[in-house]
Amino acid sequence: MSGGWNTIESDAGVFTYLIEKLGVKDVQFEELLTLEPDELRQLGKLYGVIFLFKYPTGEARSDTPKDGSYDYEAANNLFFAAQTIQNACGTQALISVLLNKDGEVDIGKELRDFKEFTGDFPPEFRGDALSNSDVIREVHNSFARSSPFIDETQRTATEDDDIYHFIAYTSVNNNLYELDGLQPAPISHGSCTVHEFPDKIIPVLQRRIERYPPTEIRFNLLACVQDLRIRARELGDEEALEAEEQKRNEWLWENALRRHNFVGFVGELLKGVVKDRLSQGEGAYDKWVEDAKAKTRKRAEDKKKQGIPGDDID
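The structure corresponding to this sequence follows.
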């Protein structure tokens, strides 16, 4: 059995560079801020969307989905894998889109070999193969946020945790499919060509969101599209191309920060501050501590005057 899978963020920059590292070419992810077909159309070539939502724990599986219908036969004609492990559903969702767009998209050698290897497997075995893929797992984990205090590979969700889940939607064989590894089969939402996808996916997403209370706003939607720099070059739009290149640079910087462990840096910084205080002469350190306590007391007193509860400082 392979090692564990760490949690990754639902972030366009994370997903874009993750698939690039897997060998996928000329594809990126864009976060959508509205549920409008026009926003999807403006992105050019659209391969699918990935939806993140709070998973309703304790909900029993039904013989029929709440929306759409199970298409058991479709699992033989498209790529669909059961989710067999925790924390991998984001990568599984993006792979579900890309492997069903092989031909439209250059998915690279690693994913193409994986697709061919698992082609005749049932969904459960495909899920196991994905879970045990060292290449995909290592790329996935390389985009996890560094934390010296939490071992995500050993963490098990409890009933008190908020659990979030990724699922993919894409048009395959002129049908709109929901690909959720926690379901027994792909869910069909009816006929849908690639060109109709922007119009037909929005009502499906709206119906899913309407299952939640109006106060629930923790949703995230990412579109899987052709690299937007390609269209900018084709149109000769230098301003758009520059904006896309700047966005890529920002994504690279953010991904580098995610992977970096700052504990050592903070420790050295604190040691430097303490050393500087001690070098100021005898009693400087004690004065520094007392000054800090006095400032904390003052903040606590100011909060009490404003009617804000706070802890007493001894």
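The CA atoms of residues 14 and 143 lie 7 Å apart.
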